[in-house]
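Example complex used in Figure S2.
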Amino acid sequence: MSNKPKVSNAIIRRLPRYRRYLGVLQNKGIKKISSNELSEIIGYTASQIRQDFNTFGEFGQQGYGYSVDYLYKEINKILGLDREYKTVIVGVGHLGQAVANYTYYYKIGFNIMGLFDINPEKIGTTINDVEIKAFSELEDFCKSEGVDIGIICVNSEGAQEVADKLVAGGVKGIWNFAPIDLEIPKDVALESVHLSDSLHALSFMIKSMNAEQE
Amino acid sequence: MSNKPKVSNAIIRRLPRYRRYLGVLQNKGIKKISSNELSEIIGYTASQIRQDFNTFGEFGQQGYGYSVDYLYKEINKILGLDREYKTVIVGVGHLGQAVANYTYYYKIGFNIMGLFDINPEKIGTTINDVEIKAFSELEDFCKSEGVDIGIICVNSEGAQEVADKLVAGGVKGIWNFAPIDLEIPKDVALESVHLSDSLHALSFMIKSMNAEQE
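Predicted assembly (428 residues):
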């Protein structure tokens, strides 16, 4: 039991990208692809790609390449996306509502079972037919519904308390949007969305391009 | 000129993480750190860390380690965070408002100069004292204000049109939250926030932990 599964953090980052690009290829009607072609699209080296796929099984044939449909399906299984997840969102400000709408609109298999907030004016109202409940009900709700994932959309100050309640409620994973490092037990998965990392990568790219153009 | 600066995509991802963890160390009052200690916290190997820092200069002393303050400051410069950026947000639904509040609340040097939407009921209202303008004004506004970064918070269907207007308006970079691959010229930096990648990494971690516990 560990926050860090045996597979490296780097491959955890690459697998969802493979899935996303394979989905694009599927939508374009492309049936097979070589590791070299995939390398062109996704930006990892062909040998990296072959090595990644070999970690999980034999997905391709020498000289033929990979079946896009088969690979997409297999990566879905590897990622645990061949099932649905029960989730709750805690904090129904703009961010929480954006995440609720995102999961609802794109039908991605992460079903919002409950929404929680501390604002009395919001409690009892609904978003996409899901009622907003009081934060005090969170732990019991997670237990009784068997919630898999808690999504934290409160600000930095409240995030650890929310995480504690989710853990007490027995969730298996936390998707955290608050920009702080949460402390949670090692047997609960934690994925934080650090928007600043993404924005800083962008500023770095802008700076690098300017340097090249000078 | 290229969307892909000479530095590898992997290091572009690591640099903002170094910065974030160094910021945490600073807040804790920690003055110096070795590559081994940093490795423990951040999860990259010590040799990877030394190699990354060597790419950009001589930041540490053999046997002494790195000065946290100095390294933080230098990484800020490398990331282009020693200046401020003029930004606009296009699409002021929940997501756009969440991003607007995030940049406002955390004072991160990416200043929102304008907000744009197509909804007549929103146009003319304000968020954090910034007025929401009509989408039709976007290109001219970017030109006249010298906007650096356009933030796309519309849905997949409208995102390419927004990107085209931002490019025509002369932005240097686009921060895209719509889950599609945008087509933009090679001299404009593009960073897309793929929430699904993050969520799928989480489901993979949950699955990996369950497997270990069985």
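Residues 9-27 of chain A form the longest helix (19 residues). Chain A touches chain B through 67 residues (CB under 8 Å).
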